[in-house]
Here is the input.
Amino acid sequence: MILFRLQLILILFLSTITGKEYFVYVTSESQDEVHLIMFDGQKGKIIKDIPVGVWPLEIEGPHGITVGPNGDYWYLSLAHGNPFGSLIKYSTKTNTPIASTKLGLFPASMQVSSTTGLLYCVNFNLHGDMEPSTVSVVDPESMTEITQIMTGSMPHGSRLSSDGLF
Here is the structure.
């Protein structure tokens, strides 16, 4: 039996199926997997293990995860790349990848603005000197990075304001 340490990076409630059942996507950074978990109000159960990444012999570090406002897609940042990380768009119906794009160094947490419809993902450079990094602004429809906004050193977490404007 292989023992492994499961690193829970972010838990996100996908949707309520009934008054008692919820689905949760959980990333496992050290295993290149995302787990779809059903919670019935009493206990959780893994109902699907979703392998992620493109290099079979390399840990790519699934890091940030979010579900789009309409619930049709979920988005995953892979922090490790050569040299940059990436953002991958998945279908919530099939949990298969639809599209991807390269982002900055070590993309992490993200959200989709309910106002602009754009996805904002922080890039945190954890190598070298502490220097400013960026937030990638992505059109989730075309999966095109529109711009990178300069931030402070090593942004790792991020949240949009409730109105989606800040």
The CA atoms of residues 134 and 151 lie 5 Å apart.
